[in-house]
Amino acid sequence: MQVRKATATFSMDFNDYHLVLREGEKLLFADDVFALVPPEYQKLLAPVKAELPPFYRGEDLRGKTLLVVAQAAIGDALCMTPALREVKRRFPDLRLWVSVSGRARPVLEGLPYIDELLPMPVPYAKVKKADYLVKCIEMVGKPQFDQLNLVEYFLWKLYLPRAEDETPDVRVDEEPLAELRPVFEEIRRLAPGKKVLLFHYLASSVHRTLPPKLLAEIEKLTAEEYVPVICSLPQEDLTVEVSLDVYGVRAANLSSLMKDVRYLVAAVSLADAVITADTATLHIAAGLKKPTVLVSGPINPEFTSRTYPTVVPARAHYRGETCMAPCGQHATGQPCSEALKKGQYYSPCLESLPPEVIVQALRDAWSLAQGDYQKPSRCPVCEGPGPFSLFEHLNGFPIYECPACGLQFAWPMRSEDYERIYSQRKAGNLLDFGETPYESYLKVEKDPENEIARWEKVPRLKVLQPLFREIPPGKHLDVGCGTGFLLLMTQKFGFEAYGMEASEEAVKIAREHFGLRVAQALTFEELPPEFRGPYRLITALEVLEHVEDPRAFLSGIYELLEKDGILILSCPPFYKFENLSYGYRKYKWWGNDYPPNHLTRWKPWTLYYALRRTGFSEIHLFTEPFIPGTLLEGARPITLNLELPHGGKVTIPTAVSARILIESLRSLYLNAPTLGNFQYALAVKEKNPGLDFRELILRAIRFAGAEIVWGPGD
Hints:
This protein is of the alpha/beta class. It has 29 helices and 29 strands. Strand 23 (about 535-540), helix 23 (about 550-560) and strand 24 (about 560-570) form a beta-alpha-beta unit.
């Protein structure tokens, strides 16, 4: 920030304000705002030294004056409102002054908790009267701003851990509302029974703008339920109509009616639902509690939508030649590097988003906004009564989190018809996109030895092999055995192998191709008598998260084990490295970690509790080794531009920085028992068979990690 003094009396139109300055008058500028002042006026504003109020650090604000200096675009200004509202709620006699750009001023005018709106630049005469100053300028590019959700960022600046309501305050102006209401009424008359869907496909940078082709596809998929309208502000794009004609988008283009942001607010208030790539529209829709889909590719949508209960983010899943979504690039004056490499205009990551995914997200957002979803009365694992917080709404299911044991679970607990999926490949939901692991399991080698060799190389199975070598051989049951690859492996270690599998096709392959003892059964009650144990070892890899009654499932396994029997099960780890790096990605439509495929998500202590409650006497939790592939799922290597100590610069490309990252974390590859992509539990029923499982597991991780990363060393 800098204070400037007028060296003459003059007036200027700047930052959407008409400023009249007298000679000697001082103004507080943000550095980047002063850089925008026309040169002829910069000459009339001389720098001066001036004392500023102390920066606010969480002091008691009763009876004080707090000046929040914020240039603020429209979206930023809206995201400030939860923090401003909350600080005034906590300190009712606080005098709250806010400096803001003229463009963003309309969204803050009339809010009862702001005592005075000031321009940017701020008259120094007002600045020196404040008791404390909060600096919310020059934010972009600062790590605090770039790594925090926008609402959270302003709460952080005001030393507020939370707010009662973390959605923006949006005031609907009566004048534009009265002008637009007849237009929307006419649209509803021409499309009786349909809801109005507002598209805002333009963003402030082209690399974040939605391809009109995607709008056309969404329009077709929602035609029976919605009539679409497009509302773009006048300064955003002069070619909206041309783009819509080229791609055959039939939405009513109301952009000519959007005189300023007040009209966009009114349009959103009159619409029934919103699909947007623009964050200002997102914040407006969230504040008005509209069902909203934020379509995001370059930017992690958690940064803009995490605190909004009626918004569902549809994020791109894209790995290209130059980038991996989200690339984190906020602004660019041209198409992104990946688009330029491919010789196109729109970002490939956004083009890769299936329109069906966005439409399903719209259904989920509608359910969230309406609150028309089922609510559980008990946790399916600990039977606690709640209250259960709603974590997300995904693929038509609300997903809750238990405050007692930490389980995340879909409600109702209704699993997919896997035989139908496997045989007909028809899901009718997000499972239509992407190959399920089961499909790859059907692609077996002709020779059993080649099949064993193929699976022995898989990281999540390599870590188990040292355990299979040490557990005393006996009868082994693999639950959900697929085509029998794990049974072939344990037979090699001397176990008498049995398997159960729901898919008729997989059972046929296991029996006829490999000669394995496999029963087609979905529950333990369906097993033939000769399959009912007792067993020395039971494995259930990636099964627990699929079952409708996890407590009954674990109890069934317990009953089938010998007294010194051992269970080894796996499930997706809630705290894998990717999740630790980026936070759990809500509405992640790839990877199939959602209902009706996965009904539960397990934290380590949740899994431990469930097994202990079942009756197991000894429990060990671990993951497969943390390996370079796992690391790169949770990290985004960047191009480094380094300045050398004695002058000169060197550029390290992404491929090289990735290699540096991989090599610098070597120690973790052998000593990180909880960061891998598959979470395991090894549980002993009653009596330990004489093995130190803790040390054995750590050694298995080290041995497997060394071989996976650097090879067998032959």
